[in-house]
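Hey there, shall we discuss this one?
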Amino acid sequence: QQEAARQTIALNALEGKPSIGVGLDYIAVGKRSDASPEHNGRDILGPRVSVRVPIYRDKYHAREQEERLKILALETQQQQQYLQFRSTLDQAFADYEDGRLKFQLYQEQEATLESTGQLLLTDYSTSGRRFVDLLQLEDQLLQYQLRSLSAVVQTRNARAAIERFRY
């Protein structure tokens, strides 16, 4: 589209210049039988010359300005699409890294809670107390496992978005 607009500008520049035309007109004339004019039945051959001088150049300037603005609009649109693509790709990379870090954090938290759970279970089996704490710990462990799965989904979705733009 930009190249077409550039070609229109070049054509407009040519149309805005003066032009000279040279031609030859030929008219076939048949003989008249009802009268006898001079050169009766003789064909007519007439040279023709034309000169065109564009006096009002405003229309050519306006058309050129319109095409230049069209080129600028297309360049702006192209830049906007590139920035949107870049933003989407950067967001996908950020989501991937965020999901990866969350997964790592939740795995560490799960390991800590499991070791704490072993201590609470040992304490409960020997003394029979802190059962509520053990249940709360198991609930927290389940919450971290769910968050860990959510982080895996986030990284997979981000990776799929990155792969989509790869090709």
